[in-house]
Design brief:
Elements: H1 22-35, E1 44-47, E2 62-65, H2 71-81, E3 87-92, H3 93-99, H4 101-110, E4 115-120, E5 123-124, E6 130-131, H5 155-162, E7 166-171, H6 175-187, E8 192-197, H7 209-213, E9 216-218, H8 229-236, E10 243-250, H9 275-283
Parallel strand pairs: 1-2, 1-3, 3-4, 4-8, 7-8, 9-10
Antiparallel strand pairs: 5-6, 7-10
């Protein structure tokens, strides 16, 4: 069966605000899964809490919504149980880097074969627009009426220095380019992070589609090669009149599943339980 974006229809339409950047991410993800031939029964999407998490209702795939900031532990547990299963995390900048920041750092360090898509809009949109960890200094929100006074977290630099083996940035207003980045991220074996600049049209009147389009440029259009970690960090901190998008860093190294002896005989879900192997396991702890 040919997999297309229509393969993921649920019969329900999104209730995001008209023009929300989530639509572009939703469309791109469906197109990417189709290109990768990952159908509704072929993978798992773990969602965080936030506007992005409502995507669960509009994606006909196996899915799970956990506690706020806890998408990554769930995804890692699923990957450990069946490491041949494609596992994608759909999270937000607050969910992933605020409540879930510690999980993000340690997941990157372990390098599980999981793909993380961050909806990065600088606000907590579901709770009506408070400043998120990526909110830039001076940005006025409901929780910072005089402007954010601290420095923002940078998802790209955090991912690179924590050990992620694929780090990229896309734009929700460029579904074609974002689809290509998602395909590359899922194909990569290891912990891949795709930070998506996602305009919140309701609570962020500064970082609009037009604001981004006048500043974004593609790394792939230059001689940039995503193999130098120091150069990747230099590009990742570039922000202002010129903002790069594309693949910042990529390397090949063993995943946490590769290093797990219990998976040498195949996925845990397909390994047969017996009284014999349970007895030998218990003997190890005596």
């Amino acid at each position: 069966m040919t997999i297309t974006a229509d393969s993921f229809k649920t019969g329900y339409l999104p209730t995001w605000c008209p023009g929300c950047g989530d639509y572009g991410i939703w469309m791109s993800l469906k197109n990417a899964l189709g290109e990768l031939s990952i159908g509704p029964d072929d993978g798992l999407i773990v969602y965080g809490i936030g506007c992005h998490g409502n995507m669960y209702d509009w994606m006909r795939t196996y899915g799970f919504i956990g506690l706020h900031g806890r998408a990554l532990p769930v995804a890692q547990g699923a990957k450990l149980a069946n490491h041949r299963l494609p596992v994608i995390v759909v999270s937000g900048d607050g969910d992933c880097l605020g409540e879930g920041g510690n999980h993000f750092i340690h997941a990157a360090k372990r390098n599980p074969d999981i793909n993380v898509i961050i909806h990065d809009n600088q606000v907590y949109g579901l709770t009506t627009g408070q400043a998120s960890p990526t909110a830039k200094a001076g940005f006025k929100t409901k929780s910072t009426p005089e402007g954010v006074v601290d420095e923002p977290m940078n998802p790209l630099t955090l991912a690179i220095v924590s050990g992620a083996t694929f780090v990229a940035r896309g734009f929700a207003g460029d579904p074609l380019g974002l689809t290509k980045l998602m395909v590359e991220a899922v194909r990569h074996k290891g912990f891949s992070v795709l930070d998506v600049l996602q305009p919140c049209v309701t609570f962020d009147k500064v970082h609009t589609y037009g604001w981004y389009r006048s500043r974004l440029y593609s790394l792939s259009a230059s001689d940039y090669a995503p193999t130098d970690k120091l150069r990747a960090l230099t590009k990742a901190v570039e922000w202002g009149d010129h903002i790069p998008v594309g693949i910042f860093y990529r390397e090949e190294k063993p995943t946490s599943e590769d290093r797990e002896p219990a998976l040498a005989e195949g996925p845990l879900v397909s390994q047969r339980e017996s009284q014999g192997n349970l007895d030998s396991l218990l003997e190890e702890f005596q």
